[in-house]
Design a protein that fits this description.
Elements lengths: L1 E4 L11 H15 L3 E2 L6 E4 L2 E6 L2 E6 L2 H13 L5 E5 L3 E2 L2 E5 L6 E4 L1 H10 L32
Antiparallel strand pairs: 1-5, 1-6, 2-3, 3-4, 4-5, 7-8, 8-9
Length: about 150
């Protein structure tokens, strides 16, 4: 589930507003039983649920949808956040994630971002050119260690 949190208009423009909002939001999540990852402080987890933050967008993943609904209700009623559901994780931050149910293979694309860049640069009428590229992920380190974090 993806949500958007609205900041009060009076806070916009203040250099400390984003940091203060982040600190308040994370403090509320900790009160709700979440633990912050030391590897990525924008990732918070609790049994059966995880939440990712990116500026004022949040993604919630839960084993039980009722748990996510209850978290949203509590963030609104107990903590005073104004929340609006925007959609699902299928498209989050311009990245579309799709899963092949037979193989479990996940694919990530950014067509929306690519179209936005093309439009911003006024290149809608350009001639496309297919440039072959390596199928390996950029910056991949096949011999590197995976993320290792224990959750208390």
């Amino acid at each position: 589930m993806k949500m958007y949190l609205c900041l009060k208009k009076s806070l916009y423009g203040l250099s400390v507003a984003p940091c203060l909002w982040y600190q308040k939001f994370v403090a509320c999540l900790v009160l709700e039983g979440f633990v912050q990852s030391f590897i990525d402080p924008c990732l918070l987890v609790k049994p059966g649920m995880m939440l990712i933050l990116y500026v004022d967008d949040q993604g919630i993943a839960a084993k039980n949808k009722a748990d996510a609904v209850e978290l949203i209700r509590r963030l609104r009623s107990v903590h005073g956040f104004e929340l609006t559901e925007e959609g699902s994780f299928h498209e989050f931050l311009g990245i579309k994630v799709s899963t092949d149910m037979k193989t479990g293979k996940m694919t990530m694309t950014q067509k929306g971002l690519i179209q936005k860049i093309i439009k911003t640069t006024s290149m809608e009428d350009c001639n496309p050119n297919w440039v072959p590229t390596s199928p390996a992920a950029l910056g991949a380190d096949p011999d590197g260690l995976p993320m290792d974090q224990t959750w208390n």
